[in-house]
Amino acid sequence: MPATHHAPVLILGSGPAGLTAAIYAARAALQPMLVAGLQPGGQMTITTDVENYPGFAATIQGPWLMEQMQKQAEHVGTRFVQDQIVTADLSRRPFACTGDSGDVYTGDALIVATGASARWLGIPGEEALRGFGVSACATCDGFFFRGKKVAVVGGGNTAVEESLFLTNHATQVTLIHRRDSLRAEKIMQTRLFANPKVSVVWDTVVEEVLGSGTPAALASLKLRNLKNGASSTLAVDGLFVAIGHTPNTGLFKDQLAMDREGYIVARPGSTETNIPGVFAAGDVQDRVFRQAVTAAGTGCMSAIEAGHFLARAEAVARAAQ
Questions:
Q1: Could you list the active site residues?
Q2: Which residues contact 260 (CB under 8 A, 6 or more apart)?
Q3: What is the reported pTM?
Q4: Residues 181-203: pLDDT tens digits?
Q5: Binning pLDDT at 50, 70 and 90, where does residue 2 land?
Q6: For 226-253, how does the pLDDT look when each residue is reduced to its tens digit (9 = 90+)?
């Protein structure tokens, strides 16, 4: 039979933002409850080698890092729930979220840390080789392709930024775009075309990601020209898919203020949303950086701000008595 579970601070999402929020909220005696969601640990659980998270001189594994953060959050008093939220009512406090299990989770303050999902091409070999040559984050993984050849798919600002960033590591960067012109800002295009390490393949799509070796690693891409139908193969060591991200904010449509792409809009320099008592942390409100460390930082901010909000609400309630 469905049950109702209440906590002063309810956290949705178990990536770096949600787990950091849980650690700070628990240490502030706010008795947080965290609902893990569909992918416990967030995108870090599909990230293999991590070399850019502060505090670790040696390479660590993304799933291991999330496991350690969860253990720390549990150690300081966070209550974890394995469920996926399917509806949310933010019209009044306590805020109420219903899980796929039918259980209802309520909180006097709510921290939304549901993250964003990278858009993938959906082609053969792509999923099997994620973390073995296929990535959606040049900032995260570009370092592993020093002295190697890589390809980037996309035509917007993100694709151009990732291509230029990768020239710091790779010997050759091939940008593959399905059209005959880029959507990126002109100044960025100028920088791209002026870089001798970059070449552009126009009017072309990647049809298949091909691996070799044991365990398999990316070896080449099967390409198809959209204008003449010609097929070709491009030998590369890495493929970076840069066709955008989708924030996981469908639950909060018509309740929380969002930009045109669905990212939650927070007050500048804060994690506060347009609804008092609701805070947004991590990639769900960050369309620029999308790093584990920045997500953790906003998770910390959200917990501190949630604590301040609850203290003010309690003071108001006492004054009204």
A1: 137, 140-141
A2: none
A3: 0.81
A4: 999 989 999 999 999 999 999 99
A5: confident
A6: 999 999 999 999 999 999 889 999 999 9
